[in-house]
Structures are given as C-alpha cells and as structure tokens.
Amino acid sequence: MIPLRDDTRRTGTPVINLLLIAANVVLFFYELSLGPRLEGFVMSAAFVPARLTAGGLGPADLGPGLESGLLSMFLHGGWAHFLGNMLFLWIFGDNVEDRLGHVRYLIFYLLAGYAATFAHLWFNPSSAMPAIGASGAISGVLGAYLLLYPKARIQTLIFFGFFARFTLVPAWVFLPFWFLIQLVSGVASLGVPGAETGGGVAFFAHIGGFVAGPVLLLLLGGFRRPARRQESVF
Fold it and tell me: How many domains are there within the chain?
C-alpha cells in the first residue's frame, strides 16, 4: 500500500516539517555527490551498533552514539528509501506539527528518531551494518498521527498482482496494518543469522519509533486540542 495524501486539514504552514524534508534532500544529494567514497563515509559517520557495543556500552559511548544517531536520521540508502520516507513525512508530518507547534514538533521528531535508533541497538547490538534513514523518526510521526487522527482517511494506492486501484483507507486501519508488518517482520528476523536488519530494513527501529510516538506526544502535550482562535470582526 502506498499512501498518496490524507484528508486532515492543517491550520498553519508546517515550517519544521518542510525544513526536515529539505535537510534530508540536501544530505541525500551530498551522498550522491560522493560517488565511490560514499560507502566509506556512511561506515565512518553513521550509527553502527557493533561500534558502540564492541567493548561494552559505557558513558563514553553516549556522545558518539548521539552524534552518529543524529546524522543517520538524515542519510538514506538509495532513491526508493529516500523517496518513500519523504512521502510518508510529507503526508503525515504536517498534521502532527500542526498539533504540537514548531518547536515541540522538532523536539518530538528528534526524540522519536533516537528512540528508534536505540530500539534497533537493543535488539541488534552486534550488527555491523550502519543504521541509516529517517524512517525511525517518521515511524514516531505515524504513531502520533494514529493517536491524534484515527478517523482520518488516507488515499492509498493498493496493488493486486498486476492491477492497482485507489481507495480511501481509514488511518486506524492503514497505520496499525503498517505497524503489524513491521512487528511480524522484526520478530521473524530474531535469531536468524545475518537477518538483523531484515535485508536492509531495521524493523525494530520502526517498531521503537512507532511506540515512542504516542508516548512523546502525550509528554509534550500534543494530545490537548488547541484553543480555538478568536477572530476579530470589523
């Protein structure tokens, strides 16, 4: 299922969401500019669980972990990875920002990204593969969106073999179904040698981000409906 748009209106300009997308665009094209140096850059700069756990986790690992975790939120492994993440962020992020406000949304996004990163670390401590992509933070956005707008309708492109059709799917169906896929895939990868990232997908980062989303939303006060704006009459 590919989401195309939702029917939830926003009241303001999603400044932070647009800036996050722009930052991802800039970093992605920087990656493309590296050519054959890209692999070395990603391996040295991105979040790699085994790099932190090789000697046992300690306080000294916190700084490098936070730094590499932050950069990894803005790196991607190819066009499909990048475009898919930006599509989800574009559709769902603006409404979460609308509820939280600009500053709290930025805090929310980064904390959701870190929650996803360390969920991946917890379940895959010995993985030597770099964990990159905005999908962990975006999973937090999806979890928050589900809590805020369960009745929203998502225009979705659904494939049936060689055929496809557009249909409106309620958020309370689309998002739990997406989460269920991540959960089943993540559990299936446990204990399977070489499957810690599910063939390139860090499923437990998605799971961790999605679960963290509603929690962070509540902690940041985003579940309270904003007061109605008073309109001046002339």
Answer: 1
From residue 205, how far is each of 72, 123, 182 by CA, in Å?
Answer: 12, 9, 9
Supply the Cα-derived Rg of the chain in whole angstroms: 18
In a domain, 233, yes or no: no
Which residue reads 């446990």 in tokens?
190
Domain assignment of residue 225, yes or no? no
Cα–Cα dist 44/182, whole Å: 28
Which two structure tokens, joined as six digits, stand for 52? 């932190």
Lowest mean pLDDT among 74-88, 130-144, 175-189, 212-226: 212-226
CATH at 32? 1.20.1540.10
Dihedral of alpha carbons 67, 207, 182, 204, sign: positive
| Domain housing 6 | 2-219
Tokens coding 56:
């046992």
Q: How many of the other CB atoms lie within 10 Å of CB of 224?
A: 9
List, for residues 16-59, the tens digit of each pLDDT value: 999 999 999 999 999 999 999 999 999 999 999 888 877 665 55
* Residue type, position 198, single letter: G
165 occurs within a structural domain: yes
- N- to C-terminal Cα distance for the chain? 48
Q: Is the predicted pLDDT of residue 221 greater than 80, yes or no?
A: yes
Q: Kindly tell me if the per-residue pLDDT of 163 is higher than 70.
A: yes
Length of the chain: 234
The answer to whether residue 93 sits within a structural domain is yes
What is the Cα–Cα distance from 161 to 163, expressed in whole angstroms?
Answer: 5
Which of 118, 14, 129 has the alpha carbon at shortest distance from 66?
118
